[in-house]
Amino acid sequence: MNFFVTSDTSTTANLGGLTGADARCQKLATAVGQGSKTWHAYLSTENPAVNAIDRIGPGPYYNVAGAMLAADKASLHARTGDSTIFLTEKGGKVNGQWVGSPAPLEHDILTGSLRNGMVNPGLTCGDWTATTGMSEVGHCDGLGPNQATTGSYTYWNAAHTGMCGDTKPGGGAGRLYCFVAP
């Protein structure tokens, strides 16, 4: 495993910056016996300018079940979300818009990034230290309303904007993507 969606949640996007977000990934990975690796949250910031794509290893990327998410960064950023691949570190599926999903909807994952993994200016919640403003989120299940499989709702890292002060509206729970660092 060198990739997962966080099983824990946050009511706001104030994560304590990249340091706090990375510590969260490291803590969750350690709890499932993967703490010997260095983990980074897939997040972009504006000040200093940091792109999420540069914070992760080169791939290939595997989830906790051993399934390959993508072979490399290019294929990772070309793919869409999928509830059967984007699993938590414990192997659980994230509540989404997939058939049979339990409520509440939690498929919005904080990224602050454009689809190519670069920072989306103005959508990083004060570089993950604020509860005001907007964030960019992705859909880990790759689905939009009524199980839509077209348009921006399919993107795992850049589906739409979310709120920094309350991650629930629109389908969030303050979850992160975690990858092994480069």
Detailed description of the structure:
The chain is α+β, with helices and mostly antiparallel strands and 182 residues long. The chain has one domain (3-180): Mannose-Binding Protein A, Chain A. Helix content is 14%, strand content 18%. The strands form 3 sheets. Strands 7-6-5-8 form a 4-stranded mixed sheet, with no helix packed on it. The two termini are 14 Å apart.
CATH class: Alpha Beta
CATH superfamily: Mannose-Binding Protein A, subunit A
Q: How is the largest sheet built, in terms of strand order?
A: 7-6-5-8
Number of domains: 1
Rg measurement, Å: 14 Å
Largest sheet: 4 strands, mixed
Report the count of strand segments: 9
CATH topology title? Mannose-Binding Protein A, Chain A
Could you tell me how far the N terminus lies from the C terminus, measured between alpha carbons in angstroms?
14 Å
Strand content: 15-25%
CATH architecture assignment name: Roll
Q: If helices are DSSP runs of H or I spanning 4 or more residues, what is the number of helices?
A: 3
The share of residues in helices is 10-25%
Low-confidence stretches: none
Structural class: alpha+beta
What general outline do the C-alpha atoms trace? globular
Helix-strand string: EHEEEHEHEEEE
Mean pLDDT: 97
